[in-house]
């Protein structure tokens, strides 16, 4: 599939190039570069550019600029030769901003010569250009601003010399070829990033991260940086990267879990971290990466672990509502390429929170027949999660909900058991731990942690882990060394939040430089 | 040195423990735990705590709380038995907030029994306690607030059971023993972090990171996340961590340099990143770590590379002035333990920017005799940097300054050569690249980068690097694939900014979990 797409694309590229060359040759057949009255007005200047006219971002151009001369910096999206005296340019910057330019030979000041027209029309697509130009209002112009730039003089250019045919990325992404093909774009990272859809995804990603931070800071959370290099594969050795470390062995952190708890033990009441986490899973799926960005928080609990659940639910709702408010254009740009249903949010006060037992009951009673016998004391599988999401969506009209009170069998040793709750299933205790779901997929795990050293050691043993093993020993020592307040927290994968919210076909499209077992570059 | 300090500390601990036990035994000799009228009012409850009274942070207690009953959560810093009927507690939270508590037997409601007094006095230091208490204003009280809590009922506790003698960390840090001994505290990470000085350093660290981000965001910079796992040791293979990666080899990024440039090539005008970078240096000094937090930015240049220099200078001055304004208490807490001179900043408009040649001239003419022959075309050594900082401080009254226009011999291949400047020294070209200094040490490297593929390849070759080598090939390909605007940037080490600003004896004290060739834990 990839193979044939690549071949088609190459053929199209060659054809476009040939057509372009023919157009250029025909239009400029009689032009010579001798005796050029505008020779000082254009050329390739790879460095900086000093000038007199006002510099304006394309997105900021407005009617006040009409008939004025401005400097605009942009990428050349496309150009079209009209005659030896005239050509059209499409200039683009960012996701949603482009403008049309005209270059036309003129003997009046500022002089534009035919060689200059020829030179401008010869600029490769995706070159970076800075042009000095007069602004016209053109009612019929195809540009978004209804405005056209007349390129007057001094276009400076940093050439691209190895470029796919104009519009390649954008065109390809408007098709519905599968995500795997999209990802071959990553091999040309600059082009991939310049596509409007990737610019929009990057902007939305920022609008997840920023409000995560500001919402928490407003509530007294303090940011900290957990280490990536750690001395023990503390959370199970299976999927951990190992590396030689000055004669010893080091590991890459799979989560900041222990370090968040150390911060609480160390006297910080509420903390959060945003940083890379690593999983050495051989999962070549659209849901997995070997490095991703974790959004994590941990906080003291005062009266109930639901304080933690509510902060996490609050910050995610804040993020999702923020995207809908602030990123409508960007979401539309993404949907045009990767169609998806709008992301349904619960009305304020109508958040959906099921217990694990309620969720399993819902699945048994209203889910597909294959899940008619799911048990209350066994963890959900990915297909079960998907089915549950669909039942909840049709029943409660939301793509975002919480499943709380997981059985202890489905949680790690540090999950706090709820001693007051009745056991479920075959007599299994429930925990004060929960998962959050977005568009049928888990995006967050969290809950209350054990804060008492004796209780913690007992649970470590009950899970079959040796309390004296590397990493665990040091973890337990912290709880023995000081009294640790009751606390809880949760972790979110930034890439997944972006990908699932937008309904992207792959989480890799939400990352800046996705890392998979097969991809370490660029 | 460490050995003897540790021994002294152990002896002191044993002595303190024995004294404490004797006091407790004497004071409570006649108390039995039978027939306790206040039995329901206290005890160890490792979980959460539901209550009626208002919960108040120690730092928020004020005169409006006098004669009211409140809930306070804190660490037990210390306690002192007065009699079988009475004892004193010191409760602490954070860097600067502590309050004294009294527990006194009483038969009036709320009943406080002698067994309860005994129990409270038996709580280990550094236990986490939640107490319900009435607030008294005590003019002579030693607490910062002039206020005392009368512990009435329901102190709940998460015990610490393996605790150094009360006040150990704080006392030790008030001494002037060397930083190496300080770092042995890291083996008891929770105690280390609870010390007021580490709480203060952590708060100041936040006040470096936060304004870095907000200053840049206000100026149109967008955050992104560069990868840690990379496919090639792109910036010189010497000090790079290597790891097995699904049958291939991966490396840990030594800086986000190439990725910042890819963002610019990919159409982002101004970007910044905050994240971990890794150096596999066997440097067991107070200046080095194997993992640290990089603050990096990259931006399009319009008229001159000085735009980059000015943004970097602006953000650092903004950070330093912000610390002086917002963190006076925290800085005082740090200085009490690690004395340092105030950090001198230039007056606005009087920033000190020397060219490299000017700096070397200053060193030759006004520096120590050993530097009387330093050359304009050779990089500065660390001792030269220190000497230069001292000359600049006495001449210009600032601890913060810029050295610009480094010779190309002292910069990497991507540094942009200033074609308009006269060569220095033995005919060496100068670059549009600079270092920033704080308290005699380099804290930032930056400058304009080459944005033209042809020029870049020539410089790569000139530096003796193979343009076809792993990492370099992919880097060059980006500049060939699109036209890249002129751009520049710089990188700051967060840990060093904090450490040098505060004059800490070791950069390790500025990190949350310092990593050195000898330390991977906790």
Automatic annotation (TrEMBL), chains A, B:
Keywords: Aminoacyl-tRNA synthetase, ATP-binding, Cytoplasm, Ligase, Nucleotide-binding, Protein biosynthesis. GO terms for cellular component: aminoacyl-tRNA synthetase multienzyme complex; cytosol. InterPro entries: Aa-tRNA-synt_II, aa-tRNA-synth_II, aa-tRNA-synth_II/BPL/LPL, Asp-tRNA_synthase_2, Asp/Asn-tRNA-synth_IIb, NA-bd_OB-fold. Residues 204-514 form the Aminoacyl-transfer RNA synthetases class-II family profile domain. One of its GO terms (biological process) is aspartyl-tRNA aminoacylation. It is found in: Cytoplasm. Pfam families: tRNA-synt_2 (PF00152). GO terms for molecular function: aspartate-tRNA ligase activity; ATP binding; RNA binding. It comes from the Eukaryota. It catalyses: tRNA(Asp) + L-aspartate + ATP = L-aspartyl-tRNA(Asp) + AMP + diphosphate. Its EC number is 6.1.1.12. Belongs to the class-II aminoacyl-tRNA synthetase family. Type 2 subfamily. This is Probable aspartate--tRNA ligase, cytoplasmic. It comes from Rhypophila decipiens.
């Amino acid at each position: 599939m990839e193979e044939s797409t690549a071949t088609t694309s190459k053929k199209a590229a060659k054809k476009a190039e040939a057509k372009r060359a023919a157009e250029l040759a025909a239009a400029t057949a009689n032009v010579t570069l001798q005796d050029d009255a505008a020779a000082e007005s254009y050329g390739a200047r790879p460095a900086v550019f000093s000038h007199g006219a006002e510099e304006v971002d394309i997105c900021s151009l407005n009617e006040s600029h009409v008939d004025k001369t401005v400097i605009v910096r942009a990428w050349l999206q496309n150009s079209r030769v009209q005659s030896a005296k005239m050509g059209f340019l499409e200039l683009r910057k960012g996701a949603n901003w482009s403008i049309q330019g005209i270059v036309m030979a003129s003997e009046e000041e500022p002089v534009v010569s035919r060689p200059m027209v020829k030179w401008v029309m010869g600029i490769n697509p995706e070159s970076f250009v800075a042009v000095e130009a007069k602004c016209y209002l053109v009612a019929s112009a195809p540009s978004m601003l209804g405005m056209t730039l007349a390129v007057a003089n001094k276009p400076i250019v940093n050439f691209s010399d190895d470029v796919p045919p104009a519009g390649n990325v954008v065109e390809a992404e408007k098709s519905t070829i599968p995500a795997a093909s999209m990802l071959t774009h990553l091999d040309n990272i600059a082009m991939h990033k310049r596509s409007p859809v990737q610019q929009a995804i990057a902007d939305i990603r920022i609008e997840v991260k920023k409000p995560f931070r500001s919402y928490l800071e407003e509530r007294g959370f303090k940011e900290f940086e957990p280490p990536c290099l750690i001395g023990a594969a503390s959370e199970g050795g299976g999927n951990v990267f190992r590396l030689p470390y000055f004669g010893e062995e080091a590991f890459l952190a799979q989560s900041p879990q222990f370090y968040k708890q150390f911060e609480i033990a160390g006297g910080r009441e509420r903390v959060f971290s945003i940083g890379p986490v690593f999983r050495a899973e051989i999962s070549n799926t659209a849901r997995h990466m070997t490095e991703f960005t974790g959004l994590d928080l941990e906080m003291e609990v005062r009266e109930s672990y639901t304080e933690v659940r509510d902060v996490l639910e609050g910050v995610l709702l804040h993020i999702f509502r923020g995207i809908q408010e602030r990123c409508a254009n960007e979401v539309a740009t993404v949907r045009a390429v990767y169609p998806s249903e709008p992301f349904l949010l619960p009305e304020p006060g109508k958040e959906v929170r099921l217990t694990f037992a309620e969720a399993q009951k819902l699945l048994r009673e209203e889910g597909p027949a294959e899940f008619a016998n799911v048990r209350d004391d066994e963890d959900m599988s990915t297909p079960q999660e998907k089915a549950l999401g669909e039942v909840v969506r049709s029943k409660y009209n939301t793509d975002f909900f919480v499943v709380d009170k997981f059985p202890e069998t489905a949680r790690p040793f540090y999950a706090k058991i709820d001693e007051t709750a009745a056991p479920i299933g075959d007599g299994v205790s429930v925990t004060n731990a929960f998962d959050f779901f977005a568009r049928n997929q888990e995006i967050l795990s969290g809950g209350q942690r054990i804060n008492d050293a004796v209780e913690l050691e007992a649970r470590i043993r009950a899970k079959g882990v040796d309390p004296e093993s590397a990493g665990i020993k040091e973890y337990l020592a912290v709880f023995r060394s000081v009294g640790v307040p009751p606390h809880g927290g949760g972790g979110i994968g930034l890439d997944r939040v972006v990908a699932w919210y937008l309904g992207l076909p792959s989480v890799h499209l939400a990352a800046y430089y996705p890392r998979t077992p097969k991809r370490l570059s660029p």
